[in-house]
Amino acid sequence: MHPTRYYSNKQEKETASKFNGGKKQCNSGATAFKKGDVTTEIVLIENKTTTKDVKSFSIKKEWLTKLKEEMFAMNKQMMALVFGFTSTKAEYVIVPINDYKELLDAYMELYK
Prior knowledge:
It is a single chain. With about 110 residues, the chain is α+β, with helices and mostly antiparallel strands. It has a single domain, classed as 3-Layer(aba) Sandwich (Trna Endonuclease, Chain: A, domain 1). The protein has 3 helices and 5 strands, in the order αβββαββα. The chain has a 5-stranded mixed β-sheet, sandwiched between helices. It is globular and about 45 Å long. It starts with a helix and ends with a helix.
């Protein structure tokens, strides 16, 4: 079994590669000015992953509160929390509902 940092680093690299212009932050954003795990031009992304096969995953409100504060501090327009289950490789994204609505509206307009 690998240490937690192995799984986190792998997930962060994969997340960055999925987003146009996505960049993995050094040291998982644990520096004074560069926060989050992955950034794009407008989005700050925090990754969370499991290291073992689990049936559930809890989202902590403090993660979302901190991510929102860091989003504003880094002058990003959107935030996202990406989480995944190691066993299935399935990943999911949590975004504020207003951002989701905006994205869905833009998608619907594009594909009318």
